[in-house]
Write a structure and sequence with these properties.
27 helices, alpha/beta, disordered C terminus, flat, 746 residues, 7-stranded mixed sheet, disordered N terminus, 4-stranded antiparallel sheet
Amino acid sequence: MAEPNDDVPSCLSRISGPLFVTTILLGSFLLFLVQPMIARMALPRLGGAPAVWNSAMLIYQALLLGGYAYAHMLGRVPVRKQAMIHLAVLAVAALWLPIGLMAMNMPADAEPAVWVPWLLGASIGPLFFAISAQAPLLQRWFAIASGGRDPYALYAASNVGSFGGLIAYPLLVEPGMALHSQSWLWTGGYVLVFVAVAACAFLLPRQATGEPHVQATSAPPSRRRVAHWVALAFVPSGLMLATSSFLTTDIVAVPMLWVLPLGLYLLSFTIAFAARRGLAEILTRFAPVTILMFGGLMIAGHNENPELNALMALGLLFMVAVALHTHMYDLRPEPDRLTGFYLAMSVGGALGGVFAGLIAPILFDWTYEYPILILAAGLLVPQSFLLPPMAKLWNAEAQGVRIRTLIVALLVAVIVWFGLFGPAASLGEKVLGMLYLAIALIGLFTIGMRVPFMIVLAGSLFLFGGYRSLAMSWAGDVRTRSYFGVYTITDLLDQKRLAHGTTLHGVQLEGDETRLRTPTTYYVFGSGVGQAMMALEGFYGPAARVGVVGLGTGTLACYAKPGQSWRFYEIDPAVVKLAKGPFRFLEQCNPKAEIILGDARLRLAEDAPASLDLLVLDAFSSDAVPMHLMTQEAFATYDRVLAKNGLLLVHISNRFLSLEPVVEAAAKAGGWSAMGLTYHPTMMEEMEEAATSDWIALSRSPATIAALKARGSEWRALETTPGFTPWTDDYATILPILRSLNKDLP
């Protein structure tokens, strides 16, 4: 190990800046490659159940906090010993290379809350812990090695590295490399980090006893200041996750959309902690305007222009994150207390993530965390008067300010009443638009005064969506929520509809018994699955065995006949309750059907070989299909559980992903015979809620496929996509199959 020098030559001093920046960039880059890479490795083995990924999120947060706490505690020893200790920690963690999961499968009776953290901690814990300490620790070293230069700008570099890792994984690493190659890439990066940290350590000066770099000499922050740091970190972190959830729930469920909120969140640190303060100050000044103008519009949930709504939501997140992180930067301590500052920031970020990602889905039946965090942002964001006349308006004695605040509250109350309960409630969007302009104009005059501003903001959120959402929650049985999203039930005159986010997931016709039992949407008689169901008895006799992955409203149960054996595989308990409660397909058609709760791929692997004649794969999460259910290894599981002449039906209707190349490649690799059917319902069928659907039928028996095709429907051969790489557990990417956002189903 290199011994840190006593007197660092001036030439080495000059390279300290680029060296420290490069080291921090590389460490942050690797840190943001870990989570998606390990998730891809773990998904086929652990499944997609919420208990699994909630536990994973908690262990990541714990390791990150541990790394920041370790960096903070290390500040109590001389800087030379810090370098030796950290290099030793990096060297010990290297024993876990190449990075990957231990060769263990989760036992069927294991408790995910215990087993998953143990597996992840034992597999990657030391590596994640060691790398997570890089940013705060090296910033403090830089302040020492550079003779007291401000180290906080290096945190901007850290987040540039994080942003690079975030973008590189889905766009470059995942499409270009299999998982085993990704593991070796990360391993090579870790070795470079070790070398770079050793070079940084070489630039650190020796310390004599009593030198001020061992113990902090500046005044310690008060408890109130630390709590303020935590709050300023809490809101952007929570709002980032809430924005992702809100966009995919109420705006548009576009694949990979989660990258944009997280990317903007990381870029906000780059601006807020930059050495040049101009942009951060401008954005912070106008952040209250953005909160006021966009907050109410966002929770109104209008879907007529989803791209514009998504841009407004992302703009709101970015402005809030920049403003609050800039305020945090303005409240930063001296460099000798830097690690404590970052520890408080890490605590706030972790708490925000836990609130939005773990607590809110249990506590709320809608994305209420989104307006709550918007209100919190309004409460915390720095405010200054936009124009001198506004400052004069509020420059009065306390009694005058109270009177003006009361006037603002009365005006807002009148506008809210007029919009919700008065004549405007029935006059349409134009009148509501005028009310929005009125409340926004009042709000502009309150910017710079916290209490009046919050009154206007709260009134706007309540008027443009808050009241409607509360009314739906009070109704009790209209909406439910789980870790998979928000499910909304809409009762119309002659039908009941289930939407998961913005995607329709089932319709049941109301009326007599015949209507209640009628399959609708993607499952009508003429669809691919409908035709397979009607051929079931002829193919496999009266005791046919049917499995369905994805319960939904239970529509397919109405194809069941006496003597058949049916079982549904469903990962979300909330869906099971909906199918057994408000929706009555199961009750009317197949009340004895077995429902197996859990990840379908794992549960199917536990089933006996050749125990099904027909398996329907209809697993959706809003408009996405779980990737681990579409790999060659997954199709091998389906093959094992199906009879030799069994039939597999795969539902590939999707607004954003063209899944036919994935299934066609898996069929070719697995020796399946396959054909596809795009069903376009007639106008009369559409009046009974039939929908266009894409289905692919596969079988290891060419005779079974030929017999299904001979029934006279418009089945076709699957299209071959030149150059398409089949999905496996080791390699899969959605980039080649993304549709244009404006392209409808074929």
